[in-house]
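agent> fetching stored inputs for the magnesium ion docking request
agent> found them:
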Amino acid sequence: MIEGKITRISGPIVYAEGLDGCGLYDVVDVGEKKLIGEIIRQNKGNATIQVYEEDTGMHIGEKVVCTERPLSLRLGPGIVGNIYDGIQRPLKAMYEKSGGFLLPGERTQPIDEEKIWHFDALENIKEGSSIYPGMVLGTVVETQSITEKIMVSPLIRGRTLKSFKGSGDYTVNDVIAVTELDEEIQLAQYWPVRQPRPYAKKLGVTEPLITGQRVIDVFFPLSKGGTAAIPGGFGTGKTMTQHAIAKWCDADLIVYIGCGERGNEMTEVLTEFPELIDPRTGRSIMERTILIANTSNMPVAAREVSLYSGITLAEYFRDMGMHVAIMADSTSRWAEALRELSGRMEEMPAEEGFPAYLPTRLASFYERAGRVINFEGQEGSVSIIGAVSPPGGDFSEPVTQHTKRFIRCFWALDRELANARHYPAIGWIDSYSEYADEVRAWWESHNPLWSELRQKALDILKTENRLQQIVRLIGPDALPNADRLLLRVADMIKNGFLQQNAFDDIDKYCSSEKQILILELILAYYDRAIACVKAGAPLSQVVSLPVCDEIVRIRMVYKNEELDKIQEVRTRMDSQLGEIERAFKN
Ligand SMILES: Nc1ncnc2c1ncn2[C@@H]1O[C@H](COP(=O)(O)OP(=O)(O)OP(=O)(O)O)[C@@H](O)[C@H]1O
Ligand SMILES: [Mg+2]
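agent> prediction call returned; pasting tokens
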């Protein structure tokens, strides 16, 4: 056992001597209270340690004991539906144990070690079977929505099983198998948080993550295995957008990281999610959600590591062949933790005080996203959606700029839209998705209209943006009828398609079929209306039909199951405009 002594304390950064032989990133027990720390610099036994718990009251001279293993997560049945801090301490269990106070140095196992799980072994596995990293030995039904696969850890070196217990009831610590190298395999395994879990092959990200949010799915799609950023000034809707995606997207599992934001936002998640029903399974959303909470009042070092803890959890489930989506709110608060720690270590600051390694650290988070083939030949993915909170809403600041290098989907929240209560306030001019080309083939086989409608609608909004500049100079009346019609249709797209209120019972989740039907209807109206205007009908008659208002409200009136009703509106619109066109043609 290597033991050293504290020589200096600077907030969450502690310096110690006598730690020769400890590795970089080894976990240490710091001080009499045995707080969890991690060696982040090592110089001949003089170590710099990042302490993950509140260390007020610690003294110079207290001992530091090295555990000689890296900071790791415990991965196994019992994780799903849990709420953890940045270093996987189970907040609910700790809260119950300590009567409402999270005490430093308190040790509670990340997953319940007493709970008995039923393990269903795969039939062909027995004593003497050959094994490989990532091989599935059997399954445990964890929640009604999630069946966990019990896999051979990639850290296991043995290649055959000396013994195998088979199906039965076990705790996460019971040994279910032993390899020829005497390594024990349990239902749960450890994995170092800072190390990406291996996979067999990386795939292209050609399948969209359907979020049920029209502006995302149609305009700026995210792929399964892709990366997106939601930058936005104070109160523009970052958290709401992430909540909406967490609730409704078609991932198998959600990892939600509340990182340095207000505590009451986490409370909202905790009270709201258990009551929400997953549209695909009909079961509570919490049954497929893991929460990591490091709110603004919790230690900054744990905030720094929380992103890596989140992605490690996600990779573990990806390796079982699941599609996992991570929300991180907010990566700016995470970067501030990095800045504070760096400042404490008296490192040379780069832009706006952030350390020079900010981009490297951002990369080591976002680059762990992807769609892969696991060692069992199945597909799984991790998609990352990071909120960015630029001070003053200024996107030129370092965190937004560096994040842009690593993400391919940018949902820029627009202050003006938010002020006008146009939600989600994702601006169509500044936002982009580099996945649009990649998911096109998928859409072709699911709904061939997607590509064409999307392009047309985006073009209309671009033209509108240009026309608005003219309108500002000379007023709308100077524009030709065709342009004024375009302005009207652009409004219909904005109000009837892009707006989507997260609090509206019908509109909060829009199926992709409904999304396409609404946009198709608006654009069909445009085509018909142009024909009328060309035939000589007055613009005012064409744009003041009651059906126009009906179209704009359709998203909130008809449910996902009532697509036939939308078709009826379409028929009515066709006949009304058809009549006008005929009347003027003759
Ligand atoms: N999709 C939406 N539907 C309805 N209301 C919304 C939507 N998005 C945002 N809002 C409104 O905007 C408010 C602020 O949103 P939110 O808390 O998500 O902003 P934020 O960007 O996370 O703010 P902060 O910078 O404080 O973290 C919400 O309380 C809600 O009233
Ligand atoms: Mg927020």
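agent> quick read of the result: The mean pLDDT is 93.
agent> awaiting further instructions
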